[in-house]
Design a protein that fits this description.
about 60 residues, two-stranded antiparallel sheet, 2 strands, flat
Length: about 60
Amino acid sequence: MTKKQFKTSDNKGRESVWEWEETPEVIEAVKKLHQTVQPDLEDLSEGLHKLEASAPDYGVGK
């Protein structure tokens, strides 16, 4: 079991700390989540490519 930590600080110097224990169960759950989400991300990416192809100047100079 490994304890992981993620720290951030804002412009005012305030810190936020996220801590979690990385167990084999957590690692397996994250792998399963990534497998579940990956097809959705691929579909989204494909849709964005189609949008960019149909409107290549979308958002430029507007």
